[in-house]
Amino acid sequence: MEYGKVCLRRGEETDLRRGGFWIYDNEIDWYDDICPAGGIVDVIDSRRQFVARGYFNPRSKITVRVLTRDPDEVIDAAFFRRRIEAAWAFRRQLGFSDACRVVFGESDGLPGLTVDKFGDYLSFQIVSLGMEQWKDAIVETLIDLFHPAAICERGDVPVREKEGLPQAAQVIYGTLPELVRLREHDAWLYADLLHGQKTGHFLDQQENRGRLKPYAPGRTVLDLCCHSGGFGIHAALYGAQSVECVDVSEEALALVRKNAAENGVQVTTTCANVFDLVKAYDEAGRRFGLVICDPPAFAKSRKALEAAYRGYKELNLRCLRLTEPGGFLVTCSCSQFMTPPLFEKMLTEAAGDVGRPIRLIETLIQSRDHPACLTAEHALYLKGLIVQVL
């Protein structure tokens, strides 16, 4: 099959040959008039040698997203089925079955596509024009492979507008209940797939929540930016003396209370801005045996990184002060531009500023069902540290 051609400027093929997935508009020399927006194109270098095949959007800063480096691989419905089948087989190999990310974009060779599984329900998100062209084929594959009770599309993300796509959240197959019940380690949790954050639940922290088991027994726990209370509920199940869950969203806290009741544990909920709350608690002399800090992304661009660094440092400085001697701090960042070394540097500086030595116990990344393809930009976005505060 013949595809339109996109020719790179001299030397711009290097990143692609090293495993990159994105081609930016300023890396392109020319492209054929027959290259349709959202269509499949062949990428060639300045010597007109084949480099990769992907989908094309001249209206996007990321003009081409790579699907294959095999010149003989045809991009059709069967291609997407093979990739989704391989992604699901990999998750099963890792031991995932009930709740997990089935497809994680570039890491599964499907840039622009995310698919999450919550028991009998699926939630997916498409963030590129090229992938949007294959939505019907993708949905057909998901129905055939998983026989779900319902499929929810979470297209309500601003990045779609950069691709010329509308925002929408909708049920496109089956009947979706208001809340879906899922199993996570020792807990039963509810998720709102249609209106909740991301695709309904923070699956990327699933394995990290299970890591609380050695640190929670007998501790007073403060769970900051708790969302639906995944960390706090697990801490309570693992024997915490008390758990306080804090979030700025009352809707999230209502879900925390429902999750606590479902698991037969006691938690208190506080609706507050975490920066204001940690300052007030610090000044009041409050101390906790286990502090969990999992805020939303502060740096969504490189330009915002400097301000984000200051924000993370201020928040973590207070968290360190709130942690009793010998207690533990679990701190995370999902800002892709806040790299693991930079995050560790920030926490080390904060510990120095408050005069509290810290011992690094564990480093955290996103759950294994979110495998980070290290040649793909920003695939490794979640990082965290568990430290003992002395």
Automatic annotation (TrEMBL):
Domain of life the protein comes from: Bacteria
Q: What is the lineage of its organism?
A: Bacteria, Bacillati, Bacillota, Clostridia, Eubacteriales
* Intracellular or extracellular location(s): Cytoplasm
Q: Name one GO cellular component term.
A: cytoplasm
A biological process (GO) annotation for this entry? methylation
Supply the name of the protein: Class I SAM-dependent rRNA methyltransferase
Pfam families, alphabetically? Answer: Methyltrans_SAM, PUA_3
- Say which species the protein is native to: Candidatus Avoscillospira stercorigallinarum
Q: Which UniProt keywords apply?
A: Cytoplasm, Methyltransferase, S-adenosyl-L-methionine, Transferase
Q: Where do the S-adenosylmethionine-dependent methyltransferase domain residues begin and end?
A: 183-352
